[in-house]
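To: structure desk
From: M.T.
Subject: fold request, one chain
Message: Could you run this one when you get a chance? Sequence is below, nothing fancy, just the single chain.
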Amino acid sequence: MSDVRLIFGCGYLGLRVARRWRDAGQRVFAVTRSRERAERLAAEGLEPVIADVLDPATLTNLPVAATVLYAVGYDRAAGASRRAVYVGGLQSVLAALPPATGKLIYVSSTGVYGPSDDDWVDELTPCRPEREGGQACLEAEALLAAHPLGQRSVLLRMAGLYGPDRLPNASDLRLGRPLAAPEQGYLNLIHVDDAASVVLAAELRAPLPSLFVASDGNPVLRREYYAELARLLDAPPPQYASPVSDSPAAARASASKRVRNTRLVHQLAVRFAYPSYREGLAAIVAGQGHCQG
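Reply: Done. C-alpha coordinates follow.
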Protein backbone atom coordinates (compact mmCIF):
# COMPACT_ATOMS: atom_id res chain seq x y z
CA MET A 1 0.00 0.00 0.00
CA SER A 2 2.83 2.43 0.81
CA ASP A 3 3.61 3.05 -2.86
CA VAL A 4 0.00 3.27 -4.07
CA ARG A 5 -1.80 6.55 -4.80
CA LEU A 6 -5.38 7.01 -5.99
CA ILE A 7 -6.79 10.12 -7.66
CA PHE A 8 -10.39 11.13 -8.21
CA GLY A 9 -10.37 14.07 -10.60
CA CYS A 10 -7.19 13.58 -12.64
CA GLY A 11 -7.64 16.83 -14.53
CA TYR A 12 -5.90 20.19 -14.57
CA LEU A 13 -4.50 19.84 -11.04
CA GLY A 14 -4.83 16.11 -10.48
CA LEU A 15 -2.81 15.14 -13.53
CA ARG A 16 0.12 17.28 -12.40
CA VAL A 17 0.06 15.61 -9.00
CA ALA A 18 -0.19 12.19 -10.68
CA ARG A 19 2.89 12.88 -12.78
CA ARG A 20 4.93 13.90 -9.74
CA TRP A 21 3.89 10.81 -7.84
CA ARG A 22 4.69 8.66 -10.90
CA ASP A 23 8.11 10.27 -11.28
CA ALA A 24 8.79 9.56 -7.60
CA GLY A 25 8.22 5.86 -8.22
CA GLN A 26 4.67 5.63 -6.89
CA ARG A 27 2.01 3.44 -8.43
CA VAL A 28 -0.76 5.88 -9.39
CA PHE A 29 -4.37 4.89 -10.07
CA ALA A 30 -6.56 7.54 -11.70
CA VAL A 31 -10.35 7.38 -11.85
CA THR A 32 -12.02 8.56 -15.07
CA ARG A 33 -15.45 8.18 -16.65
CA SER A 34 -14.08 8.03 -20.19
CA ARG A 35 -12.41 5.10 -21.95
CA GLU A 36 -10.68 7.53 -24.29
CA ARG A 37 -9.35 9.46 -21.30
CA ALA A 38 -8.31 6.17 -19.72
CA GLU A 39 -6.14 5.41 -22.75
CA ARG A 40 -4.42 8.78 -22.45
CA LEU A 41 -3.79 8.24 -18.74
CA ALA A 42 -2.34 4.80 -19.43
CA ALA A 43 -0.01 6.36 -22.00
CA GLU A 44 1.24 8.62 -19.17
CA GLY A 45 2.24 5.57 -17.14
CA LEU A 46 -0.79 5.78 -14.85
CA GLU A 47 -3.28 3.01 -14.08
CA PRO A 48 -6.78 4.14 -15.11
CA VAL A 49 -9.90 3.06 -13.25
CA ILE A 50 -13.07 3.58 -15.28
CA ALA A 51 -15.72 4.69 -12.81
CA ASP A 52 -18.03 7.61 -12.06
CA VAL A 53 -18.41 9.19 -8.63
CA LEU A 54 -22.07 9.80 -9.50
CA ASP A 55 -22.65 6.07 -10.06
CA PRO A 56 -21.81 4.13 -6.88
CA ALA A 57 -22.19 0.80 -8.71
CA THR A 58 -19.03 1.60 -10.71
CA LEU A 59 -16.89 2.27 -7.63
CA THR A 60 -15.90 -1.33 -6.98
CA ASN A 61 -12.56 -2.97 -6.19
CA LEU A 62 -10.77 0.31 -5.56
CA PRO A 63 -7.11 -0.16 -4.63
CA VAL A 64 -5.92 0.29 -1.06
CA ALA A 65 -3.96 3.54 -1.30
CA ALA A 66 -1.61 5.24 1.11
CA THR A 67 -2.98 8.57 -0.14
CA VAL A 68 -6.19 9.43 -1.96
CA LEU A 69 -6.51 12.78 -3.73
CA TYR A 70 -10.09 13.95 -4.26
CA ALA A 71 -9.95 16.83 -6.76
CA VAL A 72 -13.21 16.37 -8.66
CA GLY A 73 -14.24 19.53 -10.49
CA TYR A 74 -17.64 20.59 -11.73
CA ASP A 75 -18.45 19.69 -15.33
CA ARG A 76 -21.46 21.70 -16.51
CA ALA A 77 -21.82 19.40 -19.52
CA ALA A 78 -22.49 16.41 -17.27
CA GLY A 79 -25.90 17.77 -16.32
CA ALA A 80 -25.61 17.12 -12.57
CA SER A 81 -25.91 19.78 -9.89
CA ARG A 82 -22.93 21.01 -7.95
CA ARG A 83 -24.32 19.43 -4.82
CA ALA A 84 -24.67 16.08 -6.57
CA VAL A 85 -21.05 16.24 -7.73
CA TYR A 86 -19.38 17.68 -4.63
CA VAL A 87 -21.49 16.10 -1.89
CA GLY A 88 -23.08 13.05 -3.52
CA GLY A 89 -19.86 12.14 -5.33
CA LEU A 90 -17.76 12.35 -2.18
CA GLN A 91 -20.35 10.36 -0.24
CA SER A 92 -20.18 7.57 -2.81
CA VAL A 93 -16.38 7.54 -2.75
CA LEU A 94 -16.19 7.45 1.04
CA ALA A 95 -18.53 4.47 1.04
CA ALA A 96 -16.43 2.67 -1.58
CA LEU A 97 -12.90 3.27 -0.31
CA PRO A 98 -11.30 0.31 1.49
CA PRO A 99 -11.16 0.74 5.30
CA ALA A 100 -7.36 0.42 5.14
CA THR A 101 -7.03 3.62 3.06
CA GLY A 102 -4.26 5.78 4.49
CA LYS A 103 -5.12 9.44 4.18
CA LEU A 104 -7.38 11.58 2.00
CA ILE A 105 -6.54 14.99 0.60
CA TYR A 106 -9.72 16.83 -0.32
CA VAL A 107 -9.58 19.85 -2.64
CA SER A 108 -12.24 22.33 -1.60
CA SER A 109 -12.59 26.01 -2.51
CA THR A 110 -12.20 29.46 -1.00
CA GLY A 111 -15.76 29.93 -2.24
CA VAL A 112 -16.88 28.57 1.14
CA TYR A 113 -16.30 32.01 2.69
CA GLY A 114 -18.91 33.99 0.80
CA PRO A 115 -19.08 37.81 0.64
CA SER A 116 -16.27 39.47 2.61
CA ASP A 117 -16.19 43.17 1.63
CA ASP A 118 -12.51 42.93 0.68
CA ASP A 119 -11.62 41.61 4.16
CA TRP A 120 -8.80 39.14 4.79
CA VAL A 121 -9.87 35.53 5.36
CA ASP A 122 -8.03 32.45 6.62
CA GLU A 123 -8.70 29.06 8.20
CA LEU A 124 -10.37 30.64 11.25
CA THR A 125 -12.78 32.85 9.29
CA PRO A 126 -16.44 31.78 9.60
CA CYS A 127 -17.88 30.32 6.40
CA ARG A 128 -21.11 31.86 5.10
CA PRO A 129 -21.30 30.94 1.40
CA GLU A 130 -24.18 32.34 -0.62
CA ARG A 131 -23.41 30.72 -3.97
CA GLU A 132 -24.30 27.12 -4.79
CA GLY A 133 -20.72 26.02 -5.34
CA GLY A 134 -19.47 27.33 -2.00
CA GLN A 135 -22.45 25.85 -0.17
CA ALA A 136 -21.84 22.44 -1.75
CA CYS A 137 -18.13 22.53 -0.92
CA LEU A 138 -18.85 23.41 2.70
CA GLU A 139 -21.39 20.59 2.95
CA ALA A 140 -18.84 18.18 1.49
CA GLU A 141 -16.26 19.32 4.06
CA ALA A 142 -18.75 18.57 6.85
CA LEU A 143 -19.52 15.18 5.31
CA LEU A 144 -15.83 14.26 5.32
CA ALA A 145 -15.34 15.52 8.88
CA ALA A 146 -18.14 13.24 10.10
CA HIS A 147 -16.68 10.17 8.37
CA PRO A 148 -13.99 7.99 10.03
CA LEU A 149 -11.58 8.89 7.22
CA GLY A 150 -12.06 12.53 8.17
CA GLN A 151 -9.63 11.95 11.03
CA ARG A 152 -7.00 11.08 8.41
CA SER A 153 -7.78 13.90 6.02
CA VAL A 154 -6.34 17.20 4.85
CA LEU A 155 -8.70 19.87 3.53
CA LEU A 156 -7.23 22.28 1.00
CA ARG A 157 -9.39 25.30 0.25
CA MET A 158 -7.95 26.25 -3.12
CA ALA A 159 -7.96 29.75 -4.51
CA GLY A 160 -8.42 30.24 -8.24
CA LEU A 161 -6.17 28.00 -10.32
CA TYR A 162 -4.40 29.49 -13.31
CA GLY A 163 -1.55 28.34 -15.51
CA PRO A 164 -0.79 27.08 -19.02
CA ASP A 165 -3.97 26.86 -21.09
CA ARG A 166 -5.96 28.55 -18.35
CA LEU A 167 -5.89 32.33 -18.69
CA PRO A 168 -9.52 33.47 -18.81
CA ASN A 169 -10.32 36.37 -21.15
CA ALA A 170 -6.92 36.29 -22.90
CA SER A 171 -8.58 36.05 -26.32
CA ASP A 172 -10.87 38.99 -25.59
CA LEU A 173 -7.89 41.05 -24.46
CA ARG A 174 -5.98 40.32 -27.66
CA LEU A 175 -8.96 41.32 -29.78
CA GLY A 176 -9.65 44.47 -27.78
CA ARG A 177 -13.11 43.25 -26.76
CA PRO A 178 -14.60 44.47 -23.46
CA LEU A 179 -14.31 41.91 -20.69
CA ALA A 180 -17.63 40.69 -19.29
CA ALA A 181 -16.32 41.20 -15.77
CA PRO A 182 -16.36 43.95 -13.16
CA GLU A 183 -13.24 46.07 -12.91
CA GLN A 184 -13.26 46.10 -9.12
CA GLY A 185 -12.78 43.27 -6.64
CA TYR A 186 -9.88 41.06 -5.60
CA LEU A 187 -8.66 37.90 -7.29
CA ASN A 188 -7.06 35.21 -5.14
CA LEU A 189 -4.91 32.92 -7.22
CA ILE A 190 -2.47 30.04 -7.15
CA HIS A 191 -0.49 28.76 -10.12
CA VAL A 192 -1.44 25.16 -10.86
CA ASP A 193 2.17 23.96 -10.46
CA ASP A 194 2.33 25.54 -7.00
CA ALA A 195 -1.04 23.97 -6.18
CA ALA A 196 0.46 20.57 -7.03
CA SER A 197 3.37 21.36 -4.71
CA VAL A 198 0.86 22.16 -1.96
CA VAL A 199 -0.79 18.75 -2.40
CA LEU A 200 2.52 16.95 -2.09
CA ALA A 201 3.54 19.04 0.91
CA ALA A 202 0.20 18.27 2.55
CA GLU A 203 0.80 14.57 2.01
CA LEU A 204 4.23 14.69 3.61
CA ARG A 205 3.93 17.29 6.36
CA ALA A 206 0.33 18.05 7.28
CA PRO A 207 -0.91 16.86 10.67
CA LEU A 208 -4.07 14.76 10.57
CA PRO A 209 -6.70 16.02 10.41
CA SER A 210 -5.98 19.55 9.21
CA LEU A 211 -7.25 22.44 7.12
CA PHE A 212 -5.29 24.84 4.92
CA VAL A 213 -6.21 27.74 2.72
CA ALA A 214 -4.14 27.39 -0.46
CA SER A 215 -3.33 30.57 -2.34
CA ASP A 216 -0.19 32.46 -3.27
CA GLY A 217 -1.07 34.96 -0.52
CA ASN A 218 -0.89 37.95 -2.86
CA PRO A 219 -4.43 38.97 -3.79
CA VAL A 220 -4.64 41.35 -6.74
CA LEU A 221 -7.30 43.76 -7.85
CA ARG A 222 -8.97 42.50 -11.00
CA ARG A 223 -8.10 45.65 -12.96
CA GLU A 224 -4.41 45.30 -12.04
CA TYR A 225 -4.36 41.64 -13.04
CA TYR A 226 -5.86 42.28 -16.48
CA ALA A 227 -3.72 45.35 -17.05
CA GLU A 228 -0.62 43.23 -16.51
CA LEU A 229 -1.90 40.42 -18.70
CA ALA A 230 -2.72 42.88 -21.49
CA ARG A 231 0.79 44.36 -21.21
CA LEU A 232 2.41 40.93 -21.48
CA LEU A 233 0.24 40.05 -24.49
CA ASP A 234 0.95 43.39 -26.22
CA ALA A 235 -2.81 43.85 -26.21
CA PRO A 236 -4.79 47.09 -25.85
CA PRO A 237 -5.54 48.24 -22.30
CA PRO A 238 -8.49 46.25 -20.95
CA GLN A 239 -12.03 47.56 -21.17
CA TYR A 240 -14.88 46.26 -19.07
CA ALA A 241 -18.56 45.62 -19.61
CA SER A 242 -20.82 45.20 -16.60
CA PRO A 243 -21.76 41.53 -16.28
CA VAL A 244 -25.40 40.52 -16.24
CA SER A 245 -26.68 40.98 -12.67
CA ASP A 246 -27.45 37.29 -12.11
CA SER A 247 -24.40 35.92 -13.96
CA PRO A 248 -21.53 33.94 -12.35
CA ALA A 249 -19.18 36.89 -13.04
CA ALA A 250 -21.41 39.25 -11.08
CA ALA A 251 -21.70 36.75 -8.24
CA ARG A 252 -17.92 36.37 -8.06
CA ALA A 253 -17.46 40.12 -7.88
CA SER A 254 -19.90 40.42 -5.00
CA ALA A 255 -17.73 38.06 -2.91
CA SER A 256 -14.49 40.03 -3.06
CA LYS A 257 -12.05 38.94 -0.35
CA ARG A 258 -8.33 38.63 0.32
CA VAL A 259 -6.98 35.19 1.22
CA ARG A 260 -4.15 34.83 3.72
CA ASN A 261 -1.88 31.76 3.43
CA THR A 262 0.17 32.10 6.64
CA ARG A 263 -0.68 28.64 8.01
CA LEU A 264 0.17 26.98 4.70
CA VAL A 265 3.57 28.65 4.46
CA HIS A 266 4.55 28.08 8.07
CA GLN A 267 3.27 24.54 8.66
CA LEU A 268 3.84 23.00 5.24
CA ALA A 269 6.96 25.01 4.33
CA VAL A 270 5.71 25.50 0.77
CA ARG A 271 7.97 27.54 -1.49
CA PHE A 272 6.13 29.06 -4.40
CA ALA A 273 7.67 28.97 -7.84
CA TYR A 274 5.24 31.78 -8.70
CA PRO A 275 4.76 33.89 -5.56
CA SER A 276 2.36 36.25 -7.29
CA TYR A 277 0.38 36.63 -10.49
CA ARG A 278 3.22 38.68 -12.02
CA GLU A 279 5.72 35.81 -12.09
CA GLY A 280 3.03 33.34 -13.07
CA LEU A 281 1.65 35.34 -15.99
CA ALA A 282 5.13 36.18 -17.28
CA ALA A 283 6.10 32.50 -17.35
CA ILE A 284 2.87 31.44 -19.07
CA VAL A 285 3.01 34.10 -21.75
CA ALA A 286 6.70 33.42 -22.35
CA GLY A 287 5.75 29.80 -23.02
CA GLN A 288 3.74 30.84 -26.10
CA GLY A 289 0.70 28.92 -27.20
CA HIS A 290 -0.46 28.53 -23.60
CA CYS A 291 -2.71 31.56 -23.35
CA GLN A 292 -6.12 30.29 -24.24
CA GLY A 293 -9.33 31.63 -22.78
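Reply (cont.): Confidence is low (pLDDT under 50) at residues 289-293. Let me know if you need anything else for the meeting.
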